[in-house]
């Protein structure tokens, strides 16, 4: 009994120490012999957000996909919570991504056949988490679209869709939220709003936020910036 | 929410192509299942009725007609034969038994058959109510007749000449119901049985009535009868006789002997029925082929539906992968969708075939007083299920493989 308690305490302390630690090391990716990318190392302290700025065509999306484990690098490593993504076998990597990483894409996409609530339930299911309708309602309410629960996502307005996409990313309480050009198609006002919303949601779920964009307007909102 | 539910929702989110696939599957499965069922019922009925009958003798004509009329009671008789001649044959050492049948009259479309008690015995019929006939004009009615015409013990009715409803009635000779037979699932259920003598008497008196117009001839007739009492046997006619052989030797010798040396015709049911089935078989084979083609087309339709949906849903699948779905979950999703479609189509097809069977049974009953009984799940229908699911599996295999190999990164970047 006592042994068990000690063991548990040890686990908790271990988690605290490694919580929300994200870093990449000497990442290289090659589509073919001609096009290959080398990315600067990232070492993001716990509790901090990061803005990665870069022009089109220099491998922004590639970097995001590498960080999310959607692509495997030619060399180098991506580490989240002391787990090296590139060492995980395919199936485990999918599960790990589902549980710990939330993705927000440039344009919002959903599973067409399902309602907003079902989309979120599916994301919970895919990550292997308990399907919790209270959690879904809470997230949607926080994003101000709680009343669109049973609506089909493609029937929502542009702004609502953007919020719904953020809901998909945060519903599983990920440790890391990766956003790919979330503001590129928005006007100044909405750009600021979405950025604020993302930061707010990230801090609400205790996650680190990394935004990759060419949108210079976001610059002043982030303390940590990386220019590619 | 789970993968099965998602497959189901994906299926219903494309109502048009799903409906098309389902209609094709239902048609294919329904047709094949209906053919199997009808075939089985007909075959069973035919075999059930011909059990214990090795040969039939009747008037010369078409052997198939003789069998259809004497065994199944669905065709007109070929004519009459002399009882004397039939009884001579009955005495042949190769013959175990012979059951005389006299028919040609009917009551409300149900045939009145004059015979001996051996006839109901042939079908192991039991009397559920009352008794068998003991003297002329007493009848025992088949279960179906009793049910449909609501006949009870003690009821009486008059037969009509001919086999169709509305023939000239034999008013002066009323039949009296003395017994009701139990269900035998054979032609007996559709018959009204009486003594052979009843049929003779009805028609004999009819002759007399006709002859009353020419009294001289009638007189002559009577004297003739008086002078040659044994000739009465000669004059009596029956319509057919069901023969059972003592040994297989009978099959070798008797049909030929009867056909060559007597005024009668011999027909072997086993041979005629297989000939009938081979004639029907052509039609059944054609229909089965058409149904199989329809099923194959339905498989193609499921494939096209899934494949085109896959193209539309490629981003969705990449999205699911990025939210933690494994490759196998996507494969399973696509396969399940195909299987769900074909399974639904199969079930609908079976329902349609049962409705069709009920309908055909109604038609058969109206036209031939034959009905199908027993809703049996055929072994061939398990094979049909396996075939349908295989079609579903094959149709969704290629889309499933593509789902497995989706390049998430590229799909997400291209969108």
Any key phrases for this structure?
heterodimer; A: 228 residues; Rossmann fold; 5-stranded parallel sheet; 39% helix; B: 415 residues; alpha+beta; 14 helices; 17% strand
Description:
The complex is a heterodimer of chains A (about 230) and B (about 425). Chain A starts with a helix and ends with a strand. Chain A has about 230 residues and is an alpha/beta fold. Mean pLDDT of chain A is about 80; it is low at about 1-20. Chain A has helices at about 1-20, 60-70, 90-100, 115-125, 135-140, 160-170, 190-205, and strands at about 20-30, 35-40, 40-45, 50-55, 75-80, 85, 100-105, 175-180, 210-215, 225. In chain A, strand 1 (about 20-30) and strand 2 form a beta hairpin. Chain A is built from 7 helices and 10 strands. In chain A, strands 1, 2, 3, 5 and 6 form a 5-stranded antiparallel beta sheet that branches. A 5-stranded parallel beta sheet of chain A has the order 7-8-9-4-10, with helices on both faces. In chain B, helix 2 (about 15-50) runs antiparallel to helix 13 (about 380-405) and helix 12 (about 325-370) runs antiparallel to helix 13 (about 380-405). Chain B is an alpha+beta fold. Chain B has 2 domains: about 5-45 and about 275-415, no CATH class; about 55-265, no CATH class. Chain B has helices spanning about 5-10, 15-50, 65-70, 85-90, 120, 145-150, 195-210, 215-225, 230-235, 250-260, 270-320, 325-370, 380-405, 410-415, and strands at about 55-60, 80, 95-105, 110-115, 125-130, 140, 155-160, 170-180, 190-195, 235-240, 240-245, 265. The two termini of chain B are about 25 Å apart. Chain B is elongated and about 100 Å long. Chain B contains 14 helices and 12 strands. The interface of A and B includes residues 128 and 168 of A.
């Amino acid at each position: 009994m006592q042994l068990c308690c000690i063991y548990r305490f040890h686990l908790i302390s271990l988690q605290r120490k490694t919580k929300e630690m994200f870093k990449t090391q000497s990442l290289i990716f090659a589509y073919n012999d001609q096009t290959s990318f080398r990315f600067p190392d990232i070492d993001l302290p716990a509790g901090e957000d990061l803005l990665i700025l870069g022009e089109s065509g220099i491998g922004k999306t590639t970097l995001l996909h590498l960080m999310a484990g959607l692509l495997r690098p030619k060399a180098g490593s991506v580490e989240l919570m002391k787990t090296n993504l590139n060492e995980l076998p395919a199936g485990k990597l999918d599960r790990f991504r589902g549980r710990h990483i939330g993705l927000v894409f440039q344009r919002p996409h959903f599973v067409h056949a399902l309602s907003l609530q079902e989309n979120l339930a599916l994301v919970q299911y895919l990550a292997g988490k308990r399907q919790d309708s209270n959690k879904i309602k809470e997230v949607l309410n926080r994003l101000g679209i709680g009343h669109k629960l049973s609506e089909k996502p493609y029937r929502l307005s542009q702004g609502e869709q953007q919020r719904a996409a953020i809901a998909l990313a945060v519903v599983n309480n990920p440790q890391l939220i990766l956003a790919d050009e979330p503001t590129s198609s928005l006007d100044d006002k909405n750009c600021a709003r979405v950025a604020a919303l993302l930061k707010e949601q990230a801090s609400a779920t205790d996650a680190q936020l990394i935004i990759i964009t060419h949108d210079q307007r976001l610059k002043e909102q982030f303390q940590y910036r990386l220019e590619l | 929410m789970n993968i099965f539910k998602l497959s189901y929702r994906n299926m219903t989110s494309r109502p048009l192509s799903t409906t098309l696939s389902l209609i094709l599957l239902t048609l294919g499965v329904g047709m094949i299942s209906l053919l199997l069922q009808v075939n089985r019922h007909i075959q069973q009925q035919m075999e059930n009725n011909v059990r214990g009958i090795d040969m039939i003798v009747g008037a010369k004509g078409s052997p198939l007609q003789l069998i259809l009329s004497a065994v199944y009671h669905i065709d007109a008789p070929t004519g009459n034969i002399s009882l004397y001649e039939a009884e001579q044959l009955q005495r042949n050492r190769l013959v175990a038994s012979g059951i005389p049948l006299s028919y040609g009259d009917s009551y409300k479309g149900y045939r009145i058959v004059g015979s001996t008690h051996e006839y109901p015995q042939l079908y192991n019929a039991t009397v559920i109510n009352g008794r068998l006939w003991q003297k002329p004009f007493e009848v025992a009615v088949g279960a179906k007749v009793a049910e449909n015409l609501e006949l009870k013990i003690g009821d009486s009715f008059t037969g009509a000449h001919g086999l169709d409803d509305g023939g000239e009635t034999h008013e002066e000779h009323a039949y009296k119901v003395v017994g009701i037979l139990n269900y035998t699932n054979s032609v007996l259920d559709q018959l009204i049985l009486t003594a052979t003598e009843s049929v003779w008497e009805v028609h004999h008196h009819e002759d007399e009535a006709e002859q009353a117009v020419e009294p001289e001839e009638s007189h002559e007739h009577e004297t003739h009868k008086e002078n040659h009492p044994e000739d009465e046997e000669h004059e009596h006619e029956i319509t057919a006789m069901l023969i059972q052989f003592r040994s297989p030797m009978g099959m070798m010798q008797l049909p030929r002997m009867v056909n060559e040396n007597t005024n009668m015709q011999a027909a072997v049911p086993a041979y005629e029925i297989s000939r009938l089935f081979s004639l029907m078989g052509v039609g059944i084979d054609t229909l089965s082929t058409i149904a199989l083609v329809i099923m194959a087309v339905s498989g193609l339709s499921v494939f096209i539906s899934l494949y085109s949906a896959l193209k539309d849903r490629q981003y969705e699948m990449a999205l699911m992968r990025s939210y933690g779905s494994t490759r196998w979950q996507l494969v399973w999703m696509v396969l399940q969708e195909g299987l769900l479609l074909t399974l639904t189509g199969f079930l609908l097809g079976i329902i349609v075939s049962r409705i069709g069977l009920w309908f055909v049974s109604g038609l058969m009953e109206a036209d031939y007083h034959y009905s199908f009984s027993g809703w049996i799940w055929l072994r061939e229908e398990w094979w049909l299920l396996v075939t349908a699911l295989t079609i579903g599996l094959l149709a969704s295999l290629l889309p499933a493989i593509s789902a497995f190999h989706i390049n998430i990164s590229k799909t997400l970047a291209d969108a």
